[in-house]
Amino acid sequence: MRVAASWANASLVTRLTALIAAVILVGSVLAALAAFVQGFKEANDLQDGHLREVSQLAASLLSHTDQLPTAQGLDLDPDDRVVVEVVSSLAQIGQVPPGDHGDGFVQVLAEGREWRTLARALPQGGILVVRQSTEARDEIARHSALMAMLPLLGLIPVLMLLVRAVVRWTFRPVQHLAAQLDGIAPERLDGLPIASSPPEVRPFVASVNAMMEKVRLEQGRQRRFIADAAHELRTPMAALSLQADNLRNTALPEDAVARLAALQDGLGRSRHLLEQLLSLSRLQEVPAVGAADSASFASALSEVVADLHPLAAARQIDLGQVTQGDVQWPCSSFELQTLLRNVLSNALRHTPDGGQVNVGAVSNATGLLLFVDDSEP
C-alpha cells in the first residue's frame, strides 16, 4: 500500500524516468545474458579451431619422421593445457564414452578430469590426439563472455542518467506553462497560449483556458451585481439622509436628538461604503494602465471637491487647493478621483466643525507628491 501511495504521489518525471529505467535495466540484463551465452559459445568454437590448428601442425611435423612416438605427451600450452600425443587407440588415454564423433571431437575422461579431445589418424599408423582440459576451456570461455558482457552492464547507469536528463528536458515546456500560469493576474485572465504548447498537453491547456474564461465571466457578474446593488441603494440612502436632515430641523426631545445624530452617522458610513463599492466596481472595469495614460490633477480635484462640497459646507469646513498650476499623474482620471475622494473624505471625517482642509500636488526631482493638510487635533 505504501508503495502504491508513493507511486501515486510521484511526479510524472519520476514515473516516466522509473519506467524507462526499468525497461533499460531489464533489456540490458537480457542483452548481457545473451552476450554471455554467445561469447561463451564463440570462445569454445575458437578453442576448437585452435585444437584443429595444433593437430594439423603436429601431423605435418610427424609426416617428416619415420619414427612414431607412441603414448608420448607434449604440453604445448601449459596455461591452456593443450596436450599432443600419439596413441594406438583412444582407450589408451582414458575412458571414452560411446557415441558418434563425426567431427573428430570426443570427450575423454582421463587423469580424473574431462578432456576435449581431437583424434586424427596418421598415415604411418597410430592416432594423433590433441586434447585440452574442459575445466580450462570453460574458464577461458567464461572470462571471454564476461568481457563481452561487462560493457553492457556498465552502460546501464549511464543510460539511466541520460534518460533522467532527457525526460527533464522534455518536460521543460510544461514547467514554462506553469510559470506563465503563475504570472497571470487575477483581474486579467487572458489564458495560456495553445499553439506553442506541446500537443500532448494542449487539451489540458484548453481546459484551463475554459476554466479561466468561466471565472472571468463569474467575476464580471459579481462586479456587475455589486455595482448595481450599490447604485440602486444610493437613491433610498439619499432619501433617508434627506429625511434625517429634515427631521433635525424640527423640535425634538433631547434623547431623540442624540438618537438622530447616531442615525445620521450610520447613514453617512453607509453612504461612504456604497461609494467605496461603486469605486471598486468601476476600478475593476478600468483596463490596465498604459504608458500613455495620464490624468489632470486640477480637473480630478474639481470633480471631487464638487461632490464633497455639501459635506464640507454642512460642517463649515474650508476645502480647497493650495498649489498653483496643474500636475499630470500617470493613471486614469477615475483612479485619481478615487484616490482624492478617499483621502479627502477621511480628512473631512476627522476635522472638527469650522476647520480647514487643504490639498495640493507638486512635481519635483523625486517624483510626484500629493499632500493633505487638515486642522484636526
Q: In which order are the strands of the major sheet placed?
A: 1-2-5-4-3
- Coarse structural class: alpha+beta
Can you summarize the main beta sheet? Answer: 5 strands, antiparallel
What is the rounded Rg? 51 Å
Question: How do the helices and strands follow one another from N- to C-terminus?
Answer: HHEEEEEHHHHEHEEHEE
Summed up, the helix count is 8
Strand content: 15-25%
The end-to-end distance, rounded to whole angstroms, is 70 Å
Helix content: 55-70%
Task: Describe the 3D structure.
The chain is an alpha+beta fold and 377 residues long. Helix content is 59%, strand content 16%. The chain has helices spanning 2-9, 12-62, 134-170, 172-182, 202-248, 254-285, 297-314, 333-350, and strands at residues 72-77, 82-87, 105-110, 113-121, 127-133, 295-296, 318-321, 328-329, 356-364, 367-374. The strands form 3 sheets. The chain has a 5-stranded antiparallel sheet with strand order 1-2-5-4-3. A 3-stranded mixed sheet has the order 7-9-10. It has a two-stranded antiparallel sheet with strand order 6-8. α2 (12-62) packs antiparallel against α3 (134-170), α6 (254-285) runs antiparallel to α8 (333-350) and α7 (297-314) packs parallel to α8. The radius of gyration is 51 Å and the shape is rod-shaped. The model is unreliable at 68-76 and 288-292 (pLDDT under 50).
Q: What's a concise summary of this model?
A:
The chain is an alpha+beta fold.
What structural keywords apply?
377 residues, alpha+beta, five-stranded antiparallel beta sheet, three-stranded mixed beta sheet, 8 helices, 10 strands, 59% helix, rod-shaped
